[in-house]
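Lab intake sheet, docking and co-folding queue.

SAMPLE TYPE: protein with bound small molecule
LIGAND NAME: zinc ion
LIGAND FORMAT: SMILES
REQUESTED OUTPUT: full 3D complex as structure tokens
PRIORITY: normal
SUBMITTED BY: R.K., bench team

The fields below were copied directly from the construct record.
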Amino acid sequence: MAAHPRRRNRVPSVVVTLAFLGAIGWVVYEMAPQWRRYWALMSAPAPTHLPMPVQGVAPRAVANTWGAARDAGARTHQGVDIFARRGTPILSPVEGIVIGVGQDRLGGNVVRVLGPGRQVHYFAHLDAFGGVKPHDWVSPGAILGYVGTTGNARGTPPHLHYGIYTASGAINPYPLLAAEASPRTRGRAPESARAPGTRSRPATT
Ligand SMILES: [Zn+2]
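RESULT FIELD (auto-filled):
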């Protein structure tokens, strides 16, 4: 008599186990495309050239101010400044995942996008944000925000401060933007890709 309740309980426990395994299988099946997409992005090689992240700006209009002194030499410029009229759209240069939309002290309104090769693309001094929020996937050309003067760019001509951060630190975006200017120069040494007639702009953030 005592064995009967145990035997009766086995059927529900098998059902529960199967339902549990089924649920896990369903989640894996549903999530697999997103995991594959994420894995492909993370394992993709870092880009060797990038489109201009500000609408309508030609690469030759951007100065290579990487490494220039800032705050009386207390720090160096870890990016490039791309000048444009206030409100000009800022476009994602890569496919990626938005990992930050907010404020920081120097950058003002900033957006961060995790892109191919685990590089973080940093967009600062935005006048306003685009329609993006953290965890959004963005394609190249997606509007991240609009050029402005927030953060320590207050009082300077409106510009986008664009930075690229790798696991081993910031890298100079300039050669990547210059390489996009001409297909002939793609893949060459960074300095050789520098467009002639590059204008120097006021040193800012
Ligand atoms: Zn800057």
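REVIEWER NOTE: Residues 77, 79, 81, 161, 204-205 surround zinc ion (CB under 6 Å).
SIGN-OFF: pending second check by T.M.
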